[in-house]
Amino acid sequence: MDYNFREIEQKAIEKWKAENVYKVEYPSTKPKFYVLDMFPYPSGAGLHVGHPLGYIASDIFSRYKKLKGFNVLHPMGFDSFGLPAEQYAIQTGQHPAKTTVDNIKRYKEQLSKIGFSFDWEREVSTADASYYKWTQWIFCQLFEHWYDKTADKAKEIKELIAIFEQEGNLNVAAACGDNTNKFTAPEWTSFSEMEKSDMLMQYRLAYQADSWVNWCEGLGTVLANDEVKDGFSERGGFPVEKKKMSQWFLRITAYAQRLLIGLETLDWSDSMKEMQRNWIGKSIGAMVKFEIKNHSGFVEVFTTRIDTIFGVSFMVIAPEHELVDLISTSEYKEEIKAYQKYCNTRTDTDRQSDVKNVTGQFLGAYAINPFNGVEVPIFIADYVLIGYGTGAVMAVPSGDQRDFLFAKKFNLPIIPILDTQISIETEANPTKEGKYINSDFIDGLEFKAATNKLIEALEIKKIGYGKVNFRMRDAGFSRQRYWGEPFPIFYENGIPKLLELKDLPLELPEVISYKPAGSGESPLSTATKWVNELGDGKTRETDTMPAFAGSSWYFLRYMDAQNDNEFVSVAAQQYWQDVDLYIGGTEHAVGHLLYSRFWHKFFYDKGLVSTEEPFKKLVNQGMIQGRSLLTKENQIKGISGGLNVPINLADNKDRLFKDKLVYLSKNDNRFENIDVEKDVNWEENENGQFILLQNEVEKMSKSKYNVVNPDDIINEFGADCFRMFEMFLGPIEQHKPWDTQGIGGVSRFIGKLWRLFNFDENGNAHFSTTKGDDEAYKILHKTIKKVTEDIERFSFNTAVSAFMICVNDLSKFKLQDKNILSDLVLLMAPFAPFTTEFLWEKLGNDVCILKQGNWPIFNESFLVENLINYPISFNGKVRAKLDLDAALSENEIEKIVLENENVIKILDGKAPKKVIVVKGRIVNVVI
RNA sequence: GCCCAGGUGGUGGAACUGGUAGACACGCAGGACUUAAAAUCCUGUGACUUUUAUCGGUCGUACGGGUUCGAUUCCCGUCCUGGGUACCA
């Protein structure tokens, strides 16, 4: 009987269905294990071969853990709110809910073919009202809480109101807005309802504030930085400018310190933790006030280098800073306006990355150094961002390269402040070594002493104070989009108020057009009936939540996916606790993974979950890239090169022939204006005219014509081969290009495995039931050891090659030992579930592997070696080998080696300086 | 720009804690079986060099330095590629 994967897959699917094998046990007395994949966004392009990489890895681990006796939760769902669906809706008029449901259906069909052990009864989809009901409820909880710095946890707003009524906010240590005024209890009582609401906004964990956004008048909407290119929208090419708008925010900064220290408890890669640390960006420094000459105000700056304050030769504030209009003098008004206009068109990313173009504008005003009274000019410059710190910096050109370049450009003094700063004529020297010079009362001191003395002086003079600052900002939570969760908020007399739980979910209204309203308001604002349906002049909030809202807590919902009364029940959460293994890409390093940790800590404060961190272990999978073919420069007139061409149109030498280009010019509008006779720089051979395309490895995407669909691979080679091939490609965490050329090797391997069973034409396997060769057992146990270790360290590619070695080695025996075949089938079950299920039955088992099987136990006694093949190296180069008794001591080995004929020959009469023996590994003779 | 990761044969990759660089595959070349093809199996395969053939030798893990008896692995510097950079998910 030949290997027929179609039949085998069909049989296995029926068996699993009949035994309901993937239904998660709950309640259960077994130890739990929670394996989670980052759920996909169901895009219109369908699943490509990159998606399953992580899912296969997590599925292997889940099945392995099940065989080891754990109760495993391994769910799947869909992150179904997002811009692409909305963009598609705008273009086609189709409701995003419809396309989303269609896409999910397609994803599920594709996923089901790969043989994942998902329990689909626990599926979640963030765009389902039954799910986003709880996302909205969580928002309500955040709105109703503030952060008590003394208790270091979130508390209910009503407790804060009680404190305000008792003693105002004079003694409250809370995470709050920067300019929160102090008030007493009587003052609080005298506040209007609006004033009270505004004051509480300064404290809520979900709050409203003004912020700068990329506004595109032409599109009538707010854009992400990556949708803006050189001051124009990427779509349509309309001008983009900065605009101040009222937005919802989440006060993630309240949790900055806990998010930082929590990292220490996690089993994540150091690089991943480092990225989060850098994003949180804790810095210890000082706030300093600089008075302004002939003006009552002051410039406040945060600096981590207060020790350099005597090197300050100018100040720079952000072009959007509110002081600009107040302190600038009339003679510069026009230049300032022009410069602000220029900055207004640039994104924050552009403003920070462009270090070659130094620009700025003098305001005509001067700040006064609080320590030595020196007057320094105040500039605006685009490298200072309004959203960072105070939006102002004290510039020290001798120590900071950006300040240095600025000083050079505007001919400002560069004052050395440390005796170790040399050659500061050519570049800044940010050193902290040495003793201070030109620095008044800290002259001669070193960094630490100087810093302490200056902070003390600041606090005595009441012009500043030592401060811990975080680079991380509060999370913007408003989107002026249609396809997101509506806020459970309505306004009464301009005051935002919450809906009650019984009124949730607040479902998205139908709208005529998914386009933005154009006024800066979201498309929801056009649903006037919905907006006003509460009556009494009450209006609904029309912004929607961002995509990270739904994904910040979905891992909890899987624990209790169908609960209508709670977001997750206490009992379910206490059993499943947290995610033991989370697999996903590094692109979520600081977005999703930080927001989820923040929400989880908030739930922990509320007593809603029993763990402080959601994801114990994190494994990052790399991206599978596609091979694409692109046109080259000067090949086609009027086309600048780099246009993607479908791979199947080119021949195997990457040549695109004339008839194919004609086809393309009719079917792809990027090519439609080409005159194939005149515009193309053809090369020619006996088959006709062609252009030679260039090969490139890129991210898989529909528009690049390089998407590979797993369905095609599965149809040709079977699901098990696909699974093993994806794992065999390389380490899970590495990026790698997709190349099906190697798949034949895996397919042949499965064939060899099949042949070990000696199937006859009636489909009966033939094996021996008496104990076989010791050597066969050695092969098996070597494999048990290797595969178990490899799975534990997520090295699936080497596990697959261990199987190949095992099957190759066993192939030399005519008839296999049944026990060996059984253990091999069990070892391979996580990797190739369909084939192994079939073989398991052929070995005489009735119940499926996951219910009946146990992970094989490694027995060291089969692996004992009496001889060790020692490499003998000379100065680190291996030049001889020697089989030696494993029991020999270092001294005995050295003696035997030096007496060896070959060694004597290589030594050629020279006496070795030293002999290093590493027992069981290597001998190194130093000449 | 800043933060993080990666760079090993023609290709994907292995070498887990500093101890035989290239496991396992792909591709390629040659051979067996076959009327032929497919399938399967066997042999060889980093580069250079020596030799009738062996036995050997030299170089070699992006590049330039360093530490070490010994470096793909640790340290310093450079180049290139990928991810993130706060409204793509």
The amount of helix comes to: 25-40%
The pLDDT mean sits at: 90
Name of the CATH class of one domain: Alpha Beta
Q: Would you give the CATH topology of one domain? A: Isoleucyl-tRNA Synthetase, domain 2
* Coarse shape: globular
What is the number of helices? 31
Distance between the termini: 62 Å
CATH architecture of one domain: Alpha-Beta Complex
Largest pleated sheet:
7 strands, mixed
What structural category arises from helix and sheet content? alpha+beta
User: Spans of 5+ residues with little confidence (pLDDT < 50)?
Assistant: none
The portion of residues forming beta strands comes to: 15-25%
The oligomerization state is: single chain
**Computed Rg:** 34 Å
Description:
By secondary structure, this protein is α+β, with helices and mostly antiparallel strands. Among the domains are: 282-470, Valyl/Leucyl/Isoleucyl-tRNA synthetase, editing domain (Isoleucyl-tRNA Synthetase, domain 2, Alpha-Beta Complex), CATH 3.90.740.10; 632-692, no CATH class; 710-855, Orthogonal Bundle (Isoleucyl-tRNA Synthetase, Domain 1); 865-926, Ubiquitin-like (UB roll), CATH 3.10.20. Helices cover 34% and strands 18% of the residues. It contains 31 helices and 33 strands. The strands form 9 sheets. Strands 10, 11, 12, 13, 14, 15 and 16 form a 7-stranded mixed β-sheet that branches. Strand 3 and strand 4 (153-156) form a beta hairpin. The longest helix is centred in the C-terminal third of the chain and has 19 residues, at 774-792. It is globular, with a radius of gyration of 34 Å. The two termini are 62 Å apart. The mean pLDDT is 90. The chain binds one RNA strand of 89 nucleotides through helix 10, helix 13, strand 17, strand 29 and helix 24.
